[in-house]
Amino acid sequence: MGAGALTLFAYPRRYVDTEPVLQALSHRAYRRLFAAQVVALAGTGLATVALGLLAYDLAGEHAGSVLGTALAIKMVAYVVVAPLAAAAVARLPRRRVLVGADLLRLAAAVSLPFVGEVWQVYVLIFVLQAASATFTPTFQSVIPDVLPDERDYTAALSLSRLAYDLESVLSPTIAAALLLVVPSSALFFGTAAGFAGSALLVVSVAVPHRTSAQDDEDAPEMPFSQRARHGTALFLRTPTLRPVLALNLAVAAAGAYVLVQTVVIARAELGQGEDVVALLLAAVGVGSIAAALALPRLLRRVPERRVMLVGALVLTAATAAVPLALGAHATAGVVAIGALWVLVGAGWSAVETPVGRIIRRSVPRADLPAAFAAQFSLSHACWLVTYPLAGWLGDRHLAGTAGALAAVAAGATIVAARLWPRATAPADVTDEPDPALLTS
Q1: What is the DSSP string of 58-114?
Q2: Does 238 map to a domain?
Q3: pTM for the structure as a whole
Q4: CB-based contacts of 110, cutoff 8 Å, min separation 6
Q5: pLDDT tens-digit profile of 2-47?
Q6: What span, in angstroms and rounded, lies between the C-alpha atoms of 263 and 283?
Q7: How far apart are CA 348 and CA 45, in angstroms?
Q8: Is 153:356 a contact under the CB 8 Å cutoff?
Q9: Which CATH number belongs to the domain containing residue 187 in this structure?
Q10: How do the residues of the chain divide into helix, strand and coil, expressed in percent and rounded to 5?
Q11: Is 363 contained in some domain?
């Protein structure tokens, strides 16, 4: 971002005529938190490349099974640890929680270059991802307090999605450039540097205190087991959150097929090189980025319900069309798959980006940490199911697996449409939600 843009952000927001997706950056605290997210994601992207190379060094031709197991461990950590961590740290200052999680991730990343056994990789990956499962929901719960304005918060959601998409597109490129001058193990030190930068940026921000009855020393403390289940209970009993659970499954069904089978499609089915694999994966990011940039304006005019359901239909249709694209040859097949992956990315972003708005509007502010932790855990539970489905079924029938996962996404979308009440909440968000949204 240039100096002119930073000067522009220095003026009061009512005089700033920026694109909606950049409005949140006029707030100094959020600007630093967003920078922390970006540098941490850059480090995570380097670790993704480095982990694949490390698995090959340790297991050779069995590297795929090592990576598959590590990915399953990652999902287990997310599913199990996120709600427990949210309950365990509920009374701790959020800045300390964020910095502590970053330091734990840093320690795990620094240790990875020195492992000599596969089991050591599994242990360190669990530690790193458990720390991420603590960091991410806590970070998500801070943003609504830093950006109380609905428009700014919506822009922040799109910026967050944009950061994830840029990481998926740019980090492999940066890693490839670094590998020209450093060994693969050095990429883990880049990961550690990203987490260190994130911790320093979080320390520089005054994170708002939790607004919770639990802050009152005279208030009875909720038992740990009840706090651990609280976020999930919120999702199950809140009509506007139950459809989000179904849409999480739709995204995971299409996304798992793309992430697991792209390399097989490009190399085995279409006879292309590794560069085409990277281009096809980048196509997902391009579609998602385009949708994320368009959503702030779109969500001013169109309810989240319609945007998210249409996004789910788009990614479902794109996945269902994969067997037709696989029938094409060489260049035509690459172009067809690339176009479908752009649509999957756009639908993916349309479904996921507004979720934070819905959570923020549907639960009391005091329950936001638990609700975000539940969304983090429950969404990854869907991936824990669809990742092995995409892999195991894909080994037997690539086109048929696309059809099966498209059917899963379609079913989940239908369920979401039936569960979702058509009435929308008011645009202004207060500390307490509309009581009608909390009754089943």
Answers
A1: HHGGGHHHHHHHHHHHHHHHHHHHHHHHHHHTTTS-HHHHHHHHHHHHHHHHHHGGG
A2: yes
A3: 0.68
A4: 188, 189, 192
A5: 333 333 233 333 333 345 556 777 788 888 888 888 888 888 877 8
A6: 13
A7: 19
A8: yes
A9: 1.20.1250.20
A10: 80, 0, 20
A11: yes
